[in-house]
Design brief:
single chain; 338 residues; alpha+beta; Phage tail protein beta-alpha-beta fold; 13-stranded mixed sheet; three-stranded mixed sheet
């Protein structure tokens, strides 16, 4: 089991609902390494800090996650300056329900700690590769699998894979061509786990969403920060996605080669909010784009656009949505037509 898998045992232990067999497995894991005990201590502190409260005393969601980030001592993820986020209201019933909420919070903490844990485990044995804006990179992993990183992405993996599993951690987007083997190949993102033996697939992991599109072979997708992790099996030309604290969506039949447009120098969107599309242009072109009216970020767009110059790409975007684009110094402005 990985650190994310042990999150369930830790949650059961802290809630007093763990079985004798699971408690024994957890204690063996804790005794195996000081790094494991350090992770447990962090998660226990978070669990104890968020006792159930009366409804009128429940803090807002942003405050809770701010405290979580502080307790983990993690730096906020860098974002493009013009990246906009749509607000998704969350009811108290679904968000705050005593142990269920704390279990979800713990799962999120465990997922966030995964990147820290891989470094703590043995710093000399882990490699990190990151791409900046307007950069891509192709890497060969220790088993000779190939990974192509999209702009603004980061991957971590062991210099030599373990005997039992080929494990990598990803934030951003990457296309994997996995060499077949008897050991499972596992990709961890902040909110999902992707497990295969030998296949080709794309992983998009940004914000609270992880999306997987399979071009060849068979992929298993499960959630990492949901109480019910769920499992979805994806075949070639199928996709699914996981959002924070939710199980994976059902498999959907797609044209995989078409949707993974960045490999072919295209932008491809399907009911994508303009704010998300703009953020993708910023990453791939290393530019600053501002939506003059933030409400424009909720407009959705579908279609394929050739990735040419920034001016040409934005003109095509705006033409599709009946908008205008202008320049103000080094910033591109997207605004409504008069």
């Amino acid at each position: 089991m990985s650190i994310i898998d042990y999150n369930k045992l830790i949650s059961l232990h802290l809630s007093g609902e763990i079985s004798r067999e699971d408690e024994q497995a957890l204690q063996q894991w804790l005794a195996a390494a000081p790094e494991n005990r350090a992770v447990f201590a962090k998660l226990e502190k978070i669990w104890r800090a968020y006792q159930p409260r009366e409804p009128d005393d429940i803090p807002d969601r942003e405050l809770v996650w701010s405290r979580l980030e502080h307790s983990l001592q993690l730096q906020p993820a860098a974002q493009p300056p013009a990246l906009l986020h749509a607000d998704h209201p969350v009811t108290r019933k679904s968000w705050f329900s005593d142990n269920y909420f704390r279990a979800g919070l713990l799962a999120a903490a465990a997922a966030a700690l995964f990147f820290v844990y891989t470094t703590l485990q043995s710093p000399a044995t882990w490699q990190t590769h990151a791409t900046g804006y307007a950069q891509t990179e192709t890497l060969e992993l220790p088993d000779h699998s190939l990974v192509r990183l999209n702009a603004g992405s980061e991957i971590r993996f062991a210099r030599e894979f373990a005997d039992s599993v080929r494990l990598v951690a990803l934030q951003g987007e990457a296309f994997f061509e996995v060499v077949p083997g008897t050991r499972p190949f596992v990709v961890k993102t902040p909110h999902a786990e992707i497990r295969v033996l030998g296949t080709s697939f794309d992983v998009y992991a940004r914000g609270e969403k992880t999306e997987v599109i399979v071009t060849e072979g068979l992929v298993q997708l499960s959630a990492a920060t949901a109480v019910d992790r769920g499992r979805v099996l994806l075949h070639a030309n199928e996709k699914s996605s996981v959002r924070a604290h939710h199980a994976p969506a059902p498999a959907e039949v797609v044209n995989a080669d078409y949707l993974i447009g960045w490999l072919h120098n295209r932008f491809v969107f399907h009911k994508t909010p303009l704010a998300e599309a703009v953020a993708e242009i910023e990453r791939r072109h290393a530019v600053h784009i501002r939506l003059v009216d933030e409400a424009l970020g909720n407009l959705t767009m579908s279609g394929a656009f050739e990735d040419r110059s920034t001016d040409s790409t934005l003109q095509a975007f705006c033409l599709a949505l009946n908008l205008n684009v202008a320049r103000e110094g080094d910033t591109y402005l997207i605004l409504r037509r008069d």
